[in-house]
């Protein structure tokens, strides 16, 4: 009888252990309220994994072997508000949306502008900054005074960016790059490029860092850089919107923006401005 009781106890213990393991597996895949996951799907339990190109200084770039920049710090601040560990990763911009759709990461915080076309593949939060699409040329180039002067010329853009379509409207001679910084640098090499279309923020930052380039005219449009999230994860989108509002309200956002740009990138007069959609 003693052996029978012992076997029965061992059997019950085994069943309870299997049930506990099953529960752990469920929590790893879906998250649970109170452990920082708040019920939304995450690629890694307890971590907020967000992607940027890593070659878009000052928004995301590597320094001393670590990812840093405005986008990276915004992601860290949002993760903190959501009680998650920040886990920034890199992915080439031209395939970053496909990476999100394939659930390689939880979100894109990589200066991706909201567009109706992109919204077919991902959900977007409220904008976390505004920037304008602007033409830049070499500092000694006095021939190109407005975007129309680039018709038929060689224009540099990042592939799959919002700057590609207007470049194609102006010319058939489009040079593709994986980094706006490299494209702007090529403007200073005689005969390589006639112009580059990129963010005004990035162009002005390049000028501040000694690039011999200059802007042409005013921004052609203003785009809304937003956080892209997988369409199957609306809870995470809502949580990010709440966290974004929180870091704006408590001054964290302005502190990060002032650090990298000396101004608040959300402080812009949008009246009468064409928003890219």
UniProtKB/TrEMBL annotation:
Database matches in PROSITE patterns: PROKAR_LIPOPROTEIN (PS51257), SBP_BACTERIAL_3 (PS01039)
Localization in the cell: Cell envelope
Signal peptide (residue range): 1-19
Keywords annotated in UniProt: Signal
Main location: other
Keyword Coiled coil listed: no
Name of a matching Pfam family: SBP_bac_3
SMART domains linked: PBPb
Family matches, as InterPro entries: SBP_3_CS, Solute-binding_3/MltF_N
Residue span, Solute-binding protein family 3/N-terminal domain: 47-264
Family label: Belongs to the bacterial solute-binding protein 3 family.
Protein name: Transporter substrate-binding domain-containing protein
């Amino acid at each position: 009888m003693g052996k029978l009781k012992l076997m029965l106890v061992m059997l019950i213990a085994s069943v309870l252990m299997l049930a506990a393991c099953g529960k752990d597996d469920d929590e790893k895949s879906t998250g649970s309220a109170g452990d920082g996951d708040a019920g939304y799907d995450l690629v890694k339990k307890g971590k907020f994994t967000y992607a940027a190109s890593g070659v878009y200084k000052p928004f995301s770039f590597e320094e001393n072997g670590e990812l840093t920049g405005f986008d990276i710090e915004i992601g860290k601040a949002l993760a903190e508000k959501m009680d998650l560990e920040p886990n920034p990763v890199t992915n080439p911009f031209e395939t970053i949306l496909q990476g999100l759709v394939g659930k390689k990461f939880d979100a894109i915080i990589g200066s991706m502008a909201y567009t109706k076309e992109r919204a077919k593949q991902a959900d977007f939060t409220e904008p976390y900054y505004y920037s304008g699409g602007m033409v830049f040329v070499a500092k000694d180039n006095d021939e190109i005074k407005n975007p129309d002067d680039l018709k038929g010329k060689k224009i540099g853009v990042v592939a799959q960016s919002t700057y590609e379509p207007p470049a194609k409207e102006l010319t058939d001679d489009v040079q593709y790059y994986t980094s706006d910084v490299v494209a702007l640098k090529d403007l200073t090499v005689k005969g390589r490029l006639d112009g580059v279309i990129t963010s005004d923020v990035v162009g002005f930052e390049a000028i501040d860092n000694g690039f011999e380039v200059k802007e042409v005219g005013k921004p052609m449009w203003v785009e809304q850089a937003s956080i892209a999230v997988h369409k199957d994860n609306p809870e995470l989108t809502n949580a990010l919107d709440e966290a974004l509002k929180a870091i704006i309200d408590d001054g964290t956002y302005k502190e990060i923006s002032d650090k990298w740009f000396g101004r608040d990138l959300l402080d812009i007069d949008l009246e009468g401005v064409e928003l890219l959609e």
